[in-house]
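Lab notebook, bench 4. The sequencing result for the construct came back, and we need a structural model before the next group meeting so we can plan mutations. Quick request posted to the team channel:

Model the 3D structure of this chain.
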Amino acid sequence: MKFTADYRELKSLIKRMEALDGTRVEAGFFAEDRYGAENDFLQVAQVAYWNDRGIGVPRREFMAPSFLNAENYNWYANFITQAVQAAIHGKPVQPILKRLGEEMKGVIQVNIEDYPGSNSRAWVAIKGFDDPLLYTGKMLSSVKYKIRK
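Done. Here's the predicted structure in token form:
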């Protein structure tokens, strides 16, 4: 009796896993997003950082809760599991990564829109409303995700 091993499927699996290795889904603010000339083309990421860390304004931490919340963490882990399973079974991974990116983006946007707290009365008078992380809407609309290798 002769036994012959066929490693083609294993080699294919290794290729698929190597293609997934190092892939990242990033969500937040990216360097290309800027305010207009009226704000000296300041990067939206910089303004978001100042708000999140409380530099020059009261601290309004909205980024970390987007990712450290246990419920969100479980969502993200589930997407990663789905992506690995898809790669193992030779199915497309990209749609899963895109859904993960959209989910991450959405959580950040909800944290911006629903941030608790208030502005000073003077700032409310200037803005015309009392929402700490909204003014022009630029920061909210600049939240994006990218899939990178």
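The chain has one domain: 20-148.
Will bring this to the meeting.
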